[in-house]
Amino acid sequence: MTVSELSLKLLYEQFIQFEEDNKLFSKKIAGVFYWERVRFPVFIHIMQQRMDASEPEKKIKKEKNFKISNYFLKFRNYLLAIFRTYRNPLLAKKHDIIFYSNSRRKKQEDGYWWDIYVDHLEKQLGHSTILFEKDIFLKYRKPAKTEKMVYLTYIDLLVDLKKYLRKSRVKFSDEEIDYLRELSIKMKDLFGYSLDLTSYAHHKLTRRKRILPYYQKLLTKIKPKAVILVCNYGKEDFTEACKLNNIPVIELQHGVITKYHVGYSYEKDSAKKNNFPDFLFTFGKYWGESVNYPIPKEKIVPVGFPELETRKQKCQNVKKKKQILFISQRTIGSKLSRFAVELSQIKNLDYRIIYKLHPFEVKSWKNNFPWLAQSDIEVVDHQGRNLYQLFAESEVQVGVYSTALFEGLSYHLKTFLVDITGIDYMENLIQTGIAIKINTPEELVSVLSDKRAERFDTELFFKTNSISNIREELNKIISKI
Question: How buried is 345 (Cβ within 10 angstroms: 0-12 exposed, 13-18 middle, 19+ buried)?
């Protein structure tokens, strides 16, 4: 059994069996189905612990005074929120559509930060729209391209005031505390890692109690016909408020979805999520058929990905080079970068190697990956050459399980996946021969001429005419209200 299977596939199977054995989806705490709210972060916590254990040499360098700087940033954001009333969602006017983003922005050539999921749609749906955005690591990407945008900092401020005043706290019964403690012990016995479920559930449910009234007020004031959000997990409180107001919630796919992704995969009959979006708009047909979602199949709608489609059109005339593109991720960057360096040291390799960093790796990659910094490999950060330009000019891509690898497939790149923790997310691609799993740089060189990785229909992954499709499907949903 490979390291990746031990780290992900087996873990996932143990996890969903643990859910089934303990009937977690049917249990209420403080009157709320709590498990659907903690499921994803609990799984990620356990998986991260296992990954860290498999990489004992990995050292994460923390900045000095990290907590102090965080408090200053939060205070600054709250102070600005008080004076920037035009960004206050509680003062927003009526709009047809609310977008709730995941704050994923990329800086464009004109200096503006672009939301890759929302900004293509803002003016193209034929409805008035407004965007809700949170900070990312207590910072905002400014200036933003989005015109009608408000910050949820205002809501966070009000929730924090309740916290400091110890208002609206959820109280657990002695029986509920005993149950959560016992469950924590069972989890540690099975997975080998401790997690205080009592504190975790209390934090989640108390925040729910504090924030729901503000979400209700927002929705009453804006009166949207529909809500479109990016990334459902972590937004259960907002989704619940929408459902209480009979507002349809649509999620835009934002990344790889497989049966090992507990944010979407609900395989067991007992597994359910009451506060999952009503509809999921996917990149293509492939994504709707690869997972058992907690909503009916007819509500999984393939529409396409506007960002990818737009970028491809701009790269139509780019010529291919003998170039291998590595797609990094912060979870596997240490091992993947070592692999790339070893590949670059193979004699007579007639390919140029490009290593594209994940945005979260950019700041510290030279310290964390000194072997990469000392190599002859061209390293590209988020402000370097555009990823889609790199796709267009490359012949080969190498990675593990990044969403970007699927985007690379739409450029008909030969795709090779290194057997590192997380590769199980790409199980279907390997089984169908669309991508080839490799273990060593030498093995990669030996299969570079393999034609299997070129035979696939890109429409299966990314449907064309995306903006038109989204507009059409949205209007169908609104017309039934």
Answer: exposed
**Mean pLDDT, the chain, whole residue set:** 90
Q: What's the token pair of residue 220?
A: 């009453």
CB 232 within 8 A of CB 251: yes
Q: Give all strands (DSSP E) within 103-253, no chain letters.
A: 105-107, 113-115, 129-133, 149-151, 226-230, 249-252
Coil, helix or strand at residue 224: coil
Q: Write down the CATH number for the domain with range 311-461.
A: 3.40.50.2000
Side-chain-side CA neighbours of 473 within 13 Å: the count stands at 24
* pLDDT tens by residue, 12-35: 999 999 999 999 999 999 999 999
Any residues with CB less than 8 A from the CB of 50 and at least 6 apart, and which? Answer: 7, 11, 191, 193
Contact 329, 402 (CB under 8 A): yes
* CATH code of the domain occupying 1-304+464-481: 3.40.50.2000
How does DSSP assign 4-27, residue by residue? Answer: HIIIIIHHHHHHHHHHHHTTGGG-
Q: Please confirm whether the linkage preceding 306 is cis (ω < 30° from 0).
A: no
Residue type, 53: A
Distance separating alpha carbons of residues 229 and 240, to the nearest angstrom:
13
Token pair 């004699």 in the structure block, residue: 347
Strand 149-151 with 226-230, pairing = unpaired
Q: Is the pTM of this model over 0.85?
A: yes
Cβ-contact 39, 262 below 8 angstroms: yes
Distance CA 10, CA 6 (A): 5
Which residues, 6+ apart, have CB-to-CB distance to 150 below 8 Å?
A: 87, 88, 89, 92, 130, 131, 132, 133
Tokens for 359? 């945005």
Q: CB atoms < 10 A from the CB of 378, how many?
A: 13
Domain with CATH 3.40.50.2000 in the chain: 1-304+464-481, 311-461
93-114 tens-digit pLDDT: 999 999 999 887 888 878 889 9
Q: Is residue 40 a contact partner of residue 29, using CB atoms and an 8 Å limit? A: no
